[in-house]
Description:
The chain is an alpha/beta fold and 317 residues long.
Amino acid sequence: xxxxxxxxxxxxxxxxxxxxEIISAGRELADDAGGDLHLAVISGDVDSFADNLxxxxxxxxxxxxxxxxxxxxxxxxxxxxxxxxxxxxxxxMPNSVNGLDYAPAVANRLDLPLVTDVIGFEYDGxxxxxxxxxxxxxxxxxxxxxxxxxxxxRGAEWPEAEGVGDAEVSAFDFEVDxxxxxxTVTGFEEVGSGDVDISEAEFIxxxxxxxxxxxxxxxxxxxxxxxxATLASSRPIVDNGWLPKNxxxxxxxAQVTPQVYLAIGISGAxxxxxxxxxxxxxxxxxxxxxxxxxxxxxxxxxxxxxxxxPELIEKFS
Length: 317
């Protein structure tokens, strides 16, 4: 059996989207390998988390009670203990801030090859992973040598698992080596003042260079107010200081998966697309009919945003 052990993620008492996406990724890999999918949830309200994680395709859920929030040293020890007990062929971890914190330490402790930021994989006795390089301009396949593997999966590349499962839920007890716990979580602070978490938004109005100057922001803010959307942007807007960093979508910003993403004056550079291509519906407004954003848009308007946006405000008001 070539089983998969996937580590879920939570923050401030709520499971992250990555937890449900990694179920889909893990199920896909387990099917390729002919094994079972084991989930682990570490720290926090593990019983409640386990209930929510019990989706179709999950064979077993292991709960590890230890504190409320993420702690690097505890996670490393817990994953190592689970690995030694279950002997999975694959350990999947989210390619998130937390995941990238403990995944290298886990791989090092277990002497596993580690592939990060994976967007796809196949297994037929050899693990082949797909990654993006050069600002998402090139996709590469990487054959990984070994018998057991550690992988971090990029968010929004797999759909969130749905349905109600019948996984066996069990508590996993292990003794934490307190002498090796050298980090302590003292609080949580959102980057960039934390006024809005755009990664949780369902409807995003996002702006790019096309708005030309900061003085045109109020026009977009009127549209945001009229539609009840959340305002976001591409990197140039943040670099100009017109919006704070926590509003930036893209490879160096936030990854978002709203139901609707309205891109206004955004060309569709690969760095930006990497952060929003998981949107359910993409609508683009741009004067350039050859703008790359139209390649991924579900609906497009070729026109001047200074004509289109007032019309939209009037329709929604």
